[in-house]
Amino acid sequence: MRTPKEYLESLKDMKANIYKFGELIVDVTTHPATRRTVEGHAKIFEASMKREYEDILTTKSSLTGKKISRYLSIISSPEDMYANLHMKRLMFNLTGTCTGGRCVGLTALNAMWATTYDMDHDLGTEYHRRMQKWLMDAQNRDITLAGALTDPKGDRSRSPSQQRDPDMSLHVVEENKDGIVVRGAKVMICGVAAANEIFIMPGTSYKESDSDYAISFVIPRDVDNLTIVETRHPSDMREQEEGFDIPLKAGGITQAYLLFEDVFVPKERVFMCREYRYTLSAVMNFISLYRSAIGGCVAGQGDVMVGAAILMARANGLNEKVFREKITQMIINNETTFGMGIAAGALGKQHPSGVWIPDALLSNVNKVHVATLPYETKRLTQDIAGGIGETGCLPSYRDIQDPRYGKLLEKYLKANSSAKSRAKIARLIEWLTIGAGVPGCMHGGGSPDGAKLVINAKSNINHFIELAKKLADIKEDIQVESKKKQEK
């Protein structure tokens, strides 16, 4: 397995193809727009070597029997799902932010592991065998793997093939004996700057008329004809400054648009090409896995918010007991999303391919909680912190260092702690609650409205009605006619 240094070197060796503000980022490990997220991902490699985290971050490969990163493993049991949630919570604890350059890739490869198995079984294809060969190699190289599903989509009322511009969803434009050529884009993709490779999945389920859009493959992040535009930026420029203005010791977020201009994908890296009937199962596999595990992500950041809120209360000279009810609610919020993820994993089922698929109903219920509870935790953090953590009215590090007035700023910034400690806590709270540290709880992994559609589809309302009728001894069939029938 790689050391942090070897991981950083692997990124330095890649061809530069990421831009921000019109500038080509030559080295993602040092550029201020990408350095922080790379450091956060390097923290995974560092923590994997520590005995206290080894069981969470590493496992035994089901393909080779060797020790591998859990981020490149096949999730094959409830225990693997529990470890996945613990892993995501741990990395938020250690970095304060998202390590999406690995977790989405883990989910994508497991979703497609099951889907390629089904296609090979039903259609006689060789996609699953290709995936096995690629994954063994990926594990041996210990790569970082990002995942990409979301297409630009264009006019939401039209299917991909009905769009005025066919490139509004990623699609195949050429196929030959050596591979395929794809054109289009994937957007709002997390952690790409920290990734060695990117696992591409269909963004939704498709019909026969949209079969050119039913594609899945994996590419090096620096593949020819792929342009990446880094889009995430803070509300101010403090993250790129120095001292306490950098809120995290090791961590950051990147989000990107991936622009495919006739990118060639070798046949051995293609895992779906026009098999539109299997896109729904691929997406459902993904969301069940992802929406259960995201409960660990937000719980991990919530842990840090609880700690930061208490620290700020103490720095302000207040005993946290004053805020006990609010802190207790924050803890409840964290454990609700984490516990829902554990429950979804426990009630899941094993796919014939070996992948453990969490319960779809509970996974999507968790997604709805993830779209609400973390925001309450953020509000409570700001409430406890007071104005210094919420208004953004905090002198910069450079101003406090200024020889003309810095000492005065420092004098009036201190309270029950030193000025610099209080400023560090305030910057962390800004990052976690109103800044770039907000990790896409609302729409990350899909919208809450989309999750509610799955919840409705997976809930047997008639079963609930029959339970009530049986207990109340009701034999009558009670129905309400639709308004349209009444109007007729």
- Total count of helical runs of at least 4 residues: 17
Radius of gyration: 24 Å
CATH class value of the largest domain: Mainly Beta
Strand content: 5-15%
Helix content: 40-55%
CATH H-tier superfamily of the largest domain: Butyryl-CoA Dehydrogenase, subunit A, domain 2
Number of domains: 2
Average pLDDT: 92
The main pleated sheet reads as:
6 strands, mixed
Cα(first) to Cα(last) distance is 70 Å
The outline comes out as globular
CATH architecture label name of the largest domain: Beta Barrel
Assign the CATH topology of the largest domain: Butyryl-CoA Dehydrogenase, subunit A, domain 2
Q: Catalogue the unreliable spans.
A: none
Question: What keyword list fits this structure?
Answer:
single chain; 488 residues; alpha+beta; Butyryl-CoA Dehydrogenase, subunit A, domain 2; Butyryl-CoA Dehydrogenase, subunit A, domain 3; 2 domains; six-stranded mixed sheet; four-stranded mixed sheet; 17 helices; 14 strands; globular
Give a nutshell description of this structure.
This protein has 488 residues and is an alpha+beta fold. The chain has helices at residues 4-12, 35-48, 51-57, 78-95, 100-123, 127-141, 279-315, 324-346, 360-370, 373-385, 387-390, 397-401, 406-413, 419-433, 448-458, 461-472, 483-487, and strands at 18-20, 23-24, 58-60, 67-69, 145-148, 171-176, 179-190, 197-200, 215-220, 226-230, 255-266, 270-273, 349-350, 356-357.
